[in-house]
Design a protein that fits this description.
The complex is a heterodimer of chains A (about 450) and B (about 130). Chain A is built from 18 helices and 6 strands. Chain A has about 450 residues and is α/β, with parallel strands linked by helices. Chain A has a 6-stranded parallel β-sheet with strand order 3-2-1-4-5-6. Helix content of chain A is about 60%, strand content about 5%. Chain A has 2 domains: about 210 residues, no CATH class; about 180 residues, 3-Layer(aba) Sandwich (Rossmann fold), CATH 3.40.50. Helices cover about 70% and strands about 0% of the residues of chain B. The C terminus of chain B is likely disordered. Chain B has about 130 residues and is mainly alpha-helical. Chain B has 8 helices and no strands. Chain B has a domain of about 70 residues. The chains are: A alpha/beta (about 450), B mainly alpha (about 130). At the A-B interface, α1, α2, α3, α4 and α8 of A face α1, α2, α3, α4 and α6 of B.
Chain lengths: ~450, ~130
C-alpha cells in the first residue's frame, strides 16, 4: 500500500511538473528552466515505477532504457536543425510504437478476457498507435526526400481510404463487443498500419506541417488510451497535453493555409490544379545582379526578410543573419516575417533563425508584420513562394485563394532569391515575381547571400 | 463501466482543459519546441512499458515490453535533449553576441548552465539534469 502511494505520488509530481513545463513555453526566457523541471518530473515517475510490485525482473527494463538512450542521445544532440521536421516525425513514430506495443502486450496477456471498456481503450490505442507509426514513417520519408514529396495518388484513392478506415473502425467496434476474437484484433492492427501509409502518401510535402501536427495529436491520443487501458492517470494527463497541442497546432496550420482538415487529408494538393492555374506566358520577370541588389539593401532603412523552405534547403540561415548584420551596421533596420506554414513544420523558420543567432524579438508573426511592409524599402524573399503570392488575395480562381499571406508585394521594392522560375510547391505561378517593383536574384540561396554580403560590404 | 473509468474520464477532460489553456498561449515562435516538448512528455508511456517488460507475464509481452521501453526511452532522452537544444538558441537582442558565435555548442556552457544550477533542480534528481543538458 505504501508502495502504491509512493508511486502515485511520483506520478502526481510528474503531472504537475509537465504542466508547469508546458506553461513555461509561453515565455522564451523561462522555457528552458521549465522544460528541465518537466524532465525531472519524468525521472521521478520512472524511479517511482521501478518499485512497482509487479516488476520482478529488471534486466529487460535496464537493457531497454540503455538501448533507447543510445538511440535517443544522437537523435537529440546531433541531428541538425534543418532536419528537425524529420526528427519530429520520427519521434512521433517512436511514441506511437511504444503505445501500440503496450496495447498489444496487454491484449495478448489478457488472452481476450477483457471487459468492453478496457477493450475499447486497447483497441483505440492499437488503432491510433499503429496508423501513427506508419504515417509518421511516411511523413519522415517525404521530409527526408527518401520518398517523393509530391502527392502519390491513384484513381479512387479517397474511396479506397475511406473504405479501409470504415472497415477498420467496424472491426474495432465489433471487438469491443467480442474481445475474444484475437485474429480480428491482429487484422485490425495490420489494417491500421496500412491506413497510416495510404493516408500520408497522397499528401504533398508542402502540407506536412498539418500532417506532422496531426500525427503529434494521434500519438498523444494513443498515450491517453494506454492510460485508460492500464489505469494510469499520468499517462492520461501527458497524452491529453500531447494530443491537445497537436490538435491545436493542426487547426492553426490548416487555418494558415485556409483549408479544412478534410481538404488537407483528401485534397492531394498540387496534382491536378497546376494545369488550370495562371501561367506565366507573356509575363517576364526582371532579373537583377547581386551588385544592384546589394545597393538597394545597403541604402534601405527598413528591410523585411521573408524566409521560406528554400532557406532551409540551402541551409543558408547563417548567411541570412550575416547579411542582416551588414545592413544593420549601415544603419538599416531588419525584421523577419514568419508565415505560420513557412517550412515543413510549425515554427520551422523560427528554429532555424534562432540557430543562426537571430534574436527572437526580430522574428514577427504574420499579423504583426503585415502592416509594416508598406513602410519597408525592400522585402527580401528567400526561398518562399506561396506564402507571398498575392493571388491568394486577389484571384478567386487560384487554388490558394483566401489563404492569409505575407504582404511582401506592398513593399517599395521586392528582391526574390530563387533557384529558378519553377512554381512553388502548390504548383501555382506567383504574380509577385512579375510585379513592377520585383526583381529576381537567381541562384542557390546560400551562394546568392554570400555574394550579397560581400557586395553590401563593398558599397 | 466502472467507477475508476469515470474518474479517468474526469482526469482526461480536466487535463484537456488545462492543456488547451496553456497551449493556446504558446507563441508561434516556440511551436517547434512545443511539439518536441509534448512529444517528450507523452513518452511517459515508458512507465507502462516498464511494468510489462519487467513483470514476466509471458515471453511475448516481455519482448514487446522491452521494445516499448526502448522506443519510449528514445523519446524521453532525445525529446528533452532536443527541446533544450532548441530553447537554448532562442535569445533576445543584445544577448548572445560575444559568447554566442555561430555554433550552438560553443554558446552552451556559458551562461545557461550557470543560470540553471543555483535553483537546486540539478542536485535533487541526480542523473536527469545531466541528461537534459
Amino acid at each position: 500500500m505504501a508502495r502504491t502511494l509512493f508511486i502515485e505520488t511520483t506520478y502526481l509530481v510528474a503531472s504537475v511538473l509537465f504542466i508547469l513545463g508546458l506553461r513555461s513555453l509561453t515565455n522564451p526566457e523561462r522555457a528552458r528552466r521549465g522544460m528541465q523541471l518537466a524532465a525531472a518530473g519524468m525521472v521521478f515517475a520512472i524511479i517511482g515505477t521501478l518499485i512497482n510490485h509487479e516488476i520482478v525482473d529488471y534486466r529487460w527494463i535496464a537493457v531497454g532504457i540503455g538501448v533507447g538512450a543510445l538511440i535517443g542521445y544522437p537523435l537529440g544532440m546531433w541531428v541538425p536543425m534543418t532536419a528537425m521536421p524529420q526528427q519530429v516525425a520520427i519521434s512521433h513514430m517512436f511514441g506511437a510504437l511504444a503505445a501500440t506495443l503496450v496495447g498489444v502486450a496487454e491484449y495478448y496477456t489478457a488472452a481476450g478476457v477483457v471487459g468492453p471498456g478496457r477493450m475499447a481503450a486497447l483497441g483505440f490505442e492499437t488503432l491510433f498507435g499503429s496508423l501513427t507509426i506508419t504515417g509518421s514513417l511516411m511523413a519522415a520519408g517525404k521530409l527526408q526526400e527518401v520518398l517523393p514529396g509530391r502527392p502519390l495518388t491513384f484513381r479512387g484513392q479517397n474511396i479506397f481510404n475511406i473504405a479501409l478506415f470504415a472497415v477498420t473502425v467496424g472491426i474495432f467496434l465489433f471487438l469491443v463487443g467480442h474481445p475474444e476474437n484475437a485474429a480480428l484484433f491482429y487484422i485490425m492492427l495490420a489494417l491500421s498500419l496500412a491506413i497510416g501509409v495510404s493516408m500520408v502518401l497522397p499528401i504533398g510535402a508542402a502540407d506536412m506541417p498539418v500532417v506532422v501536427s496531426l500525427l503529434n495529436s494521434y500519438a498523444g491520443l494513443a498515450s491517453v488510451a494506454t492510460g485508460f487501458a492500464i489505469g494510469n492517470n499520468v499517462l492520461i494527463i501527458a497524452g491529453a497535453l500531447d494530443g491537445g497541442s497537436g490538435f491545436l497546432l493542426s487547426v492553426l496550420m490548416s487555418k494558415a493555409m485556409n483549408r479544412s482538415f478534410a481538404n488537407v487529408l483528401f485534397g492531394a494538393f498540387g496534382t491536378a490544379t497546376t494545369a488550370v492555374a495562371k501561367t506565366s506566358a507573356g509575363l517576364t520577370a526582371r532579373s537583377i545582379s547581386a551588385e544592384d541588389a546589394a545597393v538597394q539593401l545597403a541604402y534601405a532603412s527598413l528591410v523585411v526578410i521573408v524566409p521560406g523552405y528554400g532557406m532551409a534547403v540551402a541551409q543558408s540561415q547563417h548567411q541570412v543573419r550575416e547579411l542582416a548584420e551588414q545592413i544593420e551596421s549601415r544603419g538599416g533596420t531588419v525584421k523577419y516575417a514568419i508565415h505560420p506554414v513557412a517550412g515543413r513544420m510549425p515554427g520551422h523558420m523560427n528554429v532555424l533563425l534562432a540557430e543562426a543567432n537571430v534574436p527572437y524579438d526580430r522574428l514577427y508573426d504574420m499579423d504583426e508584420i503585415n502592416p509594416e511592409f508598406e513602410r519597408a524599402d525592400v522585402a527580401l524573399v528567400i526561398g518562399a513562394n506561396d506564402v507571398v503570392n498575392p493571388a491568394a488575395r486577389s484571384d478567386p480562381s487560384s487554388p490558394i485563394y483566401g489563404m492569409p499571406i505575407l504582404n511582401a508585394d506592398k513593399a517599395r521594392s521586392v528582391i526574390v532569391l530563387k533557384r529558378g522560375m519553377n512554381p512553388g510547391f502548390a504548383g501555382i505561378e506567383n504574380d509577385l515575381f512579375f510585379q513592377a517593383g520585383t526583381s529576381m536574384l537567381f541562384g542557390d540561396a546560400k551562394a546568392s547571400l554570400t555574394k550579397l554580403i560581400t557586395e553590401v560590404k563593398a558599397v | 463501466m466502472e467507477i475508476t473509468t469515470i474518474t479517468e474520464l474526469y482526469v482526461f477532460v480536466l487535463a484537456g482543459f488545462v492543456g488547451y489553456q496553456v497551449i493556446t498561449r504558446v507563441p508561434p515562435l516556440l511551436h517547434t519546441p512545443l511539439m518536441s516538448a509534448t512529444n517528450a512528455i507523452s513518452a511517459i508511456s515508458v512507465v507502462g512499458a516498464m511494468v510489462i517488460a519487467g513483470a514476466h507475464y509471458n515471453r511475448v509481452s516481455t519482448i514487446l515490453g522491452f521494445i516499448a521501453v526502448a522506443s519510449a526511452t528514445v523519446n524521453v532522452v532525445g525529446g528533452f535533449l532536443i527541446t533544450d537544444r532548441m530553447l537554448r538558441m532562442f535569445r533576445p537582442a543584445g544577448r548572445g553576441g560575444p559568447e554566442g558565435p555561430i555554433t550552438t555548442g560553443a554558446a552552451a556552457p556559458g551562461k545557461p548552465v550557470a543560470g540553471a544550477t543555483p535553483a537546486g533542480a540539478a542536485p535533487a534528481a541526480g542523473s536527469p539534469p545531466s541528461a537534459v543538458r
